[in-house]
Design a protein that fits this description.
This is DUF2383 domain-containing protein. It comes from Botrimarina colliarenosi. 25% of the residues are buried. The chain has one domain. The longest helix is centred in the last third of the chain and has 25 residues. Helix 6 packs antiparallel against helix 7. The N and C termini lie far apart (46 Å). The protein has 156 residues and is an all-alpha fold.
Length: 156
C-alpha cells in the first residue's frame, strides 16, 4: 500500500497565512491603508493557483513580513516612508498575483513594472521632503525589495 500524503503542510501554511493576514490587517489599520487595498491583498493570500506560484514569492514575503513586524514594534507614529513601504509591498503583491493568475509571462512583467514605477515615483517625491536619515533608509531598503521581488519571479 502506497503511503498517503499528509495534509499537515497545507494546514500549517493556511495557519501562517491567517496569522500574516491578521498582522497585515493591524498594520494596515495603523498605517491608514485603504480598506479596498487591504481586502484585495487579504484575498490574494487565499488564491494562489499552485504551490509553485506560492513558492516563487515565499522568500520575499518572509522578508516583508519580518520588516513589517519590525516597523510595527517601533514606538510613536510610523514615518511616512514606512507607510509608503507597506503600501508599496501590498500593491506589488497584488500586481504580481494578478499577473501570475493570468498565466502570461508578458503580463507578469508589465504588471510588476507598473507597480514598481508607481512606488518609486512616490518614494522619490517623498525622499525630497525627508529630513531624517532613517526615513531615507526605509525608502532605500524598499527599492531593494522591489528588485528582489522582480528577481524572485524571474523578471529582474
Amino acid at each position: 500500500m502506497a503511503p498517503q500524503l499528509s495534509p499537515q503542510p497545507t494546514a500549517n501554511r493556511n495557519h501562517r497565512e491567517k496569522q500574516d493576514i491578521a498582522m497585515l490587517h493591524r498594520l494596515a489599520s495603523a498605517f491608514a491603508i485603504s480598506a479596498e487595498g487591504f481586502d484585495s491583498v487579504a484575498a490574494d493570500f487565499w488564491n494562489w493557483q499552485s504551490p509553485a506560484d506560492f513558492a516563487r514569492l515565499s522568500i520575499e514575503r518572509q522578508r516583508a513580513t519580518s520588516e513589517l513586524r519590525s516597523i510595527a514594534r517601533r514606538s510613536g507614529p510610523p514615518p511616512q516612508a514606512a507607510k509608503m513601504w507597506l503600501a508599496g509591498h501590498l500593491r506589488n503583491w497584488l500586481a504580481v498575483r494578478a499577473a501570475l493568475s493570468s498565466g502570461n509571462g508578458d503580463s507578469v512583467k508589465r504588471e510588476v513594472r507598473r507597480a514598481e514605477r508607481f512606488f518609486l515615483e512616490r518614494c522619490e517625491a517623498a525622499h525630497e521632503r525627508m529630513p531624517a536619515t532613517a526615513n531615507r533608509e526605509v525608502v532605500r531598503r524598499h527599492t531593494g525589495s522591489i528588485r528582489r521581488l522582480l528577481k524572485a519571479i524571474g523578471e529582474g
